[in-house]
């Protein structure tokens, strides 16, 4: 999808990394550039200041994020609920999600404002932790998170395996004996899931990937599910277990909790300036 920059992006927020002073300096330079180019409204905030960002998202056309993939993940979870697209500036180590580089940003921004871009939409998953109620009453939802990369159910601080039962669309799938279980999007297939030996999925696929971490005498293959699949997980262990969302939020769970993972109604939207085949070239560059 192409855009008409004359009206598409007139309210732009710039998110900088609070622990990277160079990102704050660059955010100021970009804001001045956008203002001089005629963008009607710009603002800057720390990418970690979620409260302020949420309050401004209803009136934002575009988020520019300065940082690594972690900064992009934070922005994606915030912006997706408001259908706000993101443009990433690589200031981290990996940069799978970023689109432009800090040493060469004016030309890409000019291209953006000229309308020469397309929007890439990516599936997100939603994870809810449900607590069993007493006397067979209806289960209560402890918390709910959206994730762009993955949710991981794993052992806690002790180096001991856990048993994780998995149900798929209401039917029993298997019980894993492992260090943890990853439920990933196609975006997350190049993250923790890749380190666990999972397949690489093109980012526009709307599939869910389930893969165990260090399985022991149990199912050791990745399972690729359709977009509409619902996965229910329960952990069995005599010590604490942890649910981690995009590597940034964690919730302690036990065998009275059930973790429900399915497709989120929200999706992440990324502004792309490179050709649509960019993903494979980026992948080859990273894996050299």
From TrEMBL:
Instruction: Please give the name of this protein.
Output: NAD kinase
Q: Does the keyword Kinase apply?
A: yes
Keywords (A to Z) from UniProt: ATP-binding, Cytoplasm, Kinase, NAD, NADP, Nucleotide-binding, Transferase
Q: Which chemical reaction does it catalyze? A: NAD(+) + ATP = ADP + NADP(+) + H(+)
Q: Where, subcellularly, is it found? A: Cytoplasm
Q: Where does NAD(+) bind?
A: 69-70, 74, 149-150, 160, 179, 214, 248
| Database matches in InterPro entries | ATP-NAD_kinase_N, ATP-NAD_kinase_PpnK-typ_C, NAD/diacylglycerol_kinase_sf, NADK
Which co-factors does it depend on? a divalent metal cation
| Catalytic machinery residues | 69
């Amino acid at each position: 999808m192409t855009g008409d920059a004359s009206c598409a992006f007139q309210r732009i927020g710039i998110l900088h990394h609070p622990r990277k002073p160079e990102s704050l300096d660059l955010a100021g330079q970009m804001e001045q550039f956008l203002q001089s180019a005629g963008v009607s409204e710009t603002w800057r905030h720390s990418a970690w200041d979620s409260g302020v960002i949420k309050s401004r998202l209803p009136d934002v056309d575009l988020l520019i994020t300065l940082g690594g993939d972690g900064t992009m993940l934070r922005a994606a979870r915030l912006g997706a609920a408001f259908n706000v697209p993101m443009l990433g500036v690589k200031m981290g180590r990996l940069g799978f999600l970023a689109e432009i580089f800090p040493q060469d940003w004016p030309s890409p921004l000019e291209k953006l404002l000229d309308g020469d871009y397309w929007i890439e939409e990516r599936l997100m998953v939603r994870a809810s932790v449900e607590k069993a109620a007493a006397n067979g009453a209806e289960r209560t939802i402890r918390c709910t998170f959206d994730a762009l990369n993955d949710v991981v159910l794993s052992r806690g601080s002790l180096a001991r395996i856990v048993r994780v039962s998995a149900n798929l669309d209401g039917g029993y799938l298997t019980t894993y004996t492992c260090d943890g279980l990853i439920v990933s999007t196609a975006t997350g297939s190049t993250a923790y899931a890749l380190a666990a030996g999972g397949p690489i999925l093109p980012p526009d696929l709307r599939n869910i990937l389930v893969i165990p971490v260090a399985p022991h005498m149990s199912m050791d293959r990745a399972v690729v599910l359709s977009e509409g699949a619902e996965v229910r997980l329960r952990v069995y262990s005599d010590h604490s277990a942890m649910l981690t969302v995009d590597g940034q939020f964690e919730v302690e769970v036990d065998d009275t909790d059930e973790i429900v993972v399915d497709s989120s109604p929200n999706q992440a939207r990324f502004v792309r300036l490179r050709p649509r085949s960019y993903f494979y070239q980026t992948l080859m560059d990273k894996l050299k």
